Amino acid sequence: MSSRRTRPWWRHGVVYQIYPRSFLDTDGDGVGDLEGIRSRLDYLTWLGVDALWLSPIFRSPMADFGYDVADYCDVDPLFGSRAGFDRLLAEAHGRGLRVLLDWVPNHTSDQHPWFVESRAARTSPKRDWYVWRDPRPDGGPPNGWSAAFPPGTPAWTFDAATAQYYLHLFLAAQPDLDWRNPAVMAAMEAVLRFWLDRGVDGFRVDVVHALGKDPAMPDEPPHLAGIPHAVLNEHPSTHGILRRLRRLVDDYPGDRMLVGEVWLLLARSHAEYYGDGDELHLVFDLPAAVQTPWDADAWRTRVATVEASHGATRWPTWVLSNHDGMRHRSRFGSEARARAAALMLLTLRGTPFLYAGEELGLEDAAIAPDEVRDPGGRDGCRAPIPWASGPCHGWPRADPWLPWPPDAEIRNVEAEHADPASMLHLYRRALHLRRATSALSEGTLTLEHGPPGTLVYERTSPDERRRVLVNFTDAPIATDARGRVVLASDGAGEGAEFAGTLAPDQAIVLAPA
Ligand code: GLC
Q1: Is 373 buried (19+), middle (13-18) or exposed (0-12) by CB count in 10 A?
Q2: What are the φ and ψ backbone dihedral angles of 454, each rounded to 5 degrees?
Q3: For residue 109, how far is its CA from the centre of ligand 1 (angstroms)?
Q4: What is the pLDDT of residues 464-504, one digit of tens each?
C-alpha cells in the first residue's frame, strides 16, 4: 500500500499560506476577504497544494493586522462571517484541501474582553490572566525588556488607573497572556475546540517560543540587550504547554495538527519543540530559513543541520517566504534564482510552506514612507496578489490597501497561466511531480559531494530514486551526474538525457536513466 495512505497528510502535503487582506477582495473595500479565497479554490487545486493556512481572520482592531485578537471565536467583519468561513471550509474540504487557522496564544488585543476586565482593577478576577508588575522604585518599568515593535520601545506599558505595568512583547495594543495561569490554558483550549469542532484541520501557532516565561523576569544579559525577547526563548515551561495542546488536538479524528512559529535566538535546536512526538507536529525554523543567503555552502550546512537535528522521527519543514520578511525573489535577487530555489524547496525532505504570490515570482512592493501601514515595516511582502492584467488586476478597485507589487501587469495569475514557461507553471509542475513521486514527497535525503558552487542531494523511497542538483553560481558548472531530466528550473532539456552541465542558477531533478 502506498504510504501516502498511511502517513498523515502533513508529512507529504504542501501548505500554502494566505494573507487574507492581500489575497483577493470581493466586496470593494480594498481589503481581501474569505469570499475572495473561496472564489479561488479551483486555482489552488489546479496549482496542486494540499492545505491552506490563513493568517488570522478573527475579530481584531487590526493594530497588527489580525495578530491582535479581540474575539478568537468570531470572524472579523472585514473578512466575512462565521457562516462564510464554514462555507469556505466545506468547499475546501470538498476539493481535498485542508485548512489551518492562525492561532495567536501569546497575546490578545488590548480590546479583548479578557484584557478589558483584567485592566479594570487590581482585584479583577482576570487580573492574573495577563502579566502585571509594580513599577521599580524609581517608577520605571519592571525590567529592561524591549518590544519587537516599534523597534527600541519598552515591552512594558504603565496603566495609570491601576498604577502597574503590563507586559507586551509586541505592540502596547498586544498584552501578553500569563500561561502559568490554568484559567488561561482552559480558555484557550476552549478556543481550539471551538474551531476543531467546526472541522478545521489544525493551527499555525504564533510566537510559540515566548509562551512559557521565567517568572523571575530577569533582565537581558548585557551581550543580548536590545535583542527583543532574547531571554524569553526556551523557557522549559513552554514544553509542558505544548504537550497539553498536542493531546487536545490528537484527540480529534483525522490528522489534525499544530505547526509552530518557533523563533529561537539562543537556540540549541528548534527541533526540541517536536518533543518526543508529543509536542508540535511541525516546527518552523524561521531565522535560518529566511536568512540563508543564495550560497551553496550556506545551504549545504543548512540541510545538513536540519537532517542531523531532526533524524528519522521529526519531520522537517521548509519555508522561503512569509508575511514577516522580504520575499525570497527580492532577497535572492533574480528570477533564475527564485526558480531554482522553488525547485529546491519542493524537493527537500520535509513539508514545504509556500507564501501566496511566490508561485508568481512576486517581488516586494516598493512602499513610499507615507504608504507604510505596518508598525513592523513589513508591508512590502504583503502587497496584494495580482490576478489579471489591467488597472485593477482582478480586484474590484485599482487602489487596494497596499500598492501592487512590481511588474503586476505581466506577473499575475492570468498572464502566467497563459504562458507555459512562467514561474506559475514551474511551481505547478514541481508540485505535481512531488505528489507523483514518493522519493520526493516522503523519501530519505542524502547529501552528496557535488562540484564547488553546487548543492546535490539524493531522495530515495523503497521504489524510487531522484537526484537534485542546484547551481548557486552565475557560471555554468560541469558535473559527472547522469540521468533523465524530469524537471528543470528553466525548463531546459526536460525529458532528455542530462548532458552533464548545469546552467547558471539552474536546478534540475534527475531520474535514473
Ligand atoms: C508573529 C507573526 C507576526 C506578528 C507577531 C505578533 O511573528 O508572524 O506577523 O506580528 O507574531 O503576533
Answers
A1: middle
A2: -120, 160
A3: 13
A4: 999 999 999 999 999 999 999 999 999 999 999 999 999 99
| R_g (Cα) of the chain, nearest Å | 23
Half-sphere exposure of 22 (CA within 13 A, CB side): 26
- Of 55, 57, 60, 67, the one to substitute when testing ligand 1's pocket (max ligand atoms within 8 A of C-beta) is 67
Distance (Å, rounded) from C-alpha 439 to C-alpha 495?
18
Contact of 382 with 372, CB cutoff 8 Å:
no
Q: Which residues, other chains included, contact 91 with Cβ-Cβ below 8 Å and sequence gap of 6+?
A: 38, 41
Write out pLDDT tens, residues 447-467.
999 999 999 999 999 999 999
Cis preceding linkage at 135, omega within 30: no
Q: Which of the residues 234, 261, 416, 505 is marked catalytic?
A: 261
Q: Per residue in 295-349, pLDDT tens?
A: 999 999 999 999 999 988 999 999 999 999 999 999 999 999 999 999 999 999 9
Is-catalytic flag, 261?
yes
Catalytic residue from among 25, 33, 110, 206: 206
Which among 227, 55, 203, 31 is positioned nearest to 147, based on CA atoms? 227
First-to-final CA distance of the chain: 26
Is 497 a known active-site residue?
Answer: no
Count, in order, helices (H) and strands (E) of the chain. Answer: 14, 20
